[in-house]
Structures are given as structure tokens and as C-alpha cells.
Amino acid sequence: MNIRSHRLRALAWSILAAALLTEGPQHSGTANAADAAQGKAAASHEGFVPIFNGKDLTGWDGDPRLWSVRNGVIRGETTTEKPAQGNTFLIWRGGKLRDFVLKLKFRIRDGNSGVQYRSQDLGKWSVSGYQVEVSNDRPNPGIGAGFLYHERGRGELAYVGEFAVIDSTGKRTVVGKVGDANALKQAGYYRNGDWNEFTITAHGNRLIHWVNGYQTAELIDNDPKGGAREGILALQIHAGPPMLVEFSDIQLKAIDGGVDSAGRKFNDKGQSGWVVAPDPQK
Known about the structure:
7-stranded antiparallel sheet; 3 helices; Jelly Rolls
């Protein structure tokens, strides 16, 4: 190593050390405040934008009898005195989702819920469209947390562990597996009654779900009638017995367009449409 390189490396380490000292942990009075600060820092570094302010339901629209904010989290709760009259939703009014990555945390006690995306607003807090399932363990792990459902539409689209394709006629075919539902359950991919994290990616006609870092479902949707390339975001309270669901740290990142729909790109016949490029490493 020459003297100039040595000096540059020493300078780089000095800058890094100063940055680490400057960006030390910021202590707050409550755990919720610390979590919120951590979430904001991650969002700014990764390009995610928080869409829930942690204080109130500004920018969100739902039945005020059932939706509220407490201790920095969104709460959807029904009781015997205040039941839900059918499935009802808290709708984000900040715009329509197209291609995106969505991260959020959730916890549920009893009942089931879901996160709607690229969905349609039917009025009176009713929604139709893609939904990632929120639920505690069920006898059938295929319909557990993270499976893909079409609310008020085509029903089950991709069960936990499935890679499915819907063709232009609306026919659903399982073409592979992203995991085994029973093995995922045994691995503890989902934490009953505790906080869990969703990551949802929608890019063109391809939809992918993760729960706590485990991929749970993937769908390529080529159905021109049932599929959707844009729509609203909403959180669900399911009709039925009393339930409580909570959501926090809701962060959204838009994905630039320009990528064609997922599908077959090689025609098995020749090199038409392909270009041979030199190896830049040689």
C-alpha cells in the first residue's frame, strides 16, 4: 500500500467513526417513541415513506365506532355492543397504489383481518380486491397469515406456500411452491397473538407476500377482468364475533415502472430479441 492510499483509508475510517458518534441512539421517554424513531430512520434510508403518523387517523377513513389510535398503533375493534355490520375497512386516502413495496406490523386477537391493496372502494367503507390474510393459526395452514385472497371477487388466489398463475381466461394454476405450509408453521414463521411484519410487493402483474421474512405466496395475475394494476389500500375488520386487530409502522415505497409483465420471455426457437454483450470483467 502506498502512502497516498494509506492516508485515504485513514481519512475514510475517521469520517465513519465521526458519523457513528453523531448518529448514536436517541433515547425517548417511551418504547413506542423509540420504535417510531427507528422506523422513520429506516424509512428515510431505504426510500420508504411512513403513511401513518402514529397519533391519529389523519389520512385514513373508516367507521369511527370501530377504528381508533391508542399507544401509537391503529386499533380495529368490535364488541357485542358495537359489532361490525359486514366486513368493514379503514381506507387510506393518500392515493392509489400501483407498483410498490409495503411494510407494516400487525397483531390480532380473535377473528381475522386483512390488508387490502390495489383494491376498489365500493362506498360505505366496503372494499373489493387483493387481500393479504391476517389471522392466528388455523387447522388448515394454507389459509393462514400471508395467503392471497380476493375480497368480494375471485376468492382464494394463492394459498400459503403456493406460486400460482392466473391466465387470461381466469383459470388458476399452481406452477410451483415458495415453501411448504406445514414446514413454515413448524418453523414459526408467524407468531400467534404477537407482533408480526408483512412485506407486500406488487410489480406489474406479479404479487409477492412475506411474513416476518418468510415468503408465503406469489401470484402472476394475467386475468384482464379480475386482476388490477392499481387501487386503494385498506385495513379490514371482519364481521363476526368480537375481535381486535392492531397495525403500526406502515411504510410505503413506490417502484418505478418500465418492467414488462412477468411471463415467458424465450420462445424456444432462436435468439430473436436477444443481444450478446461482451463480459465487462474481461
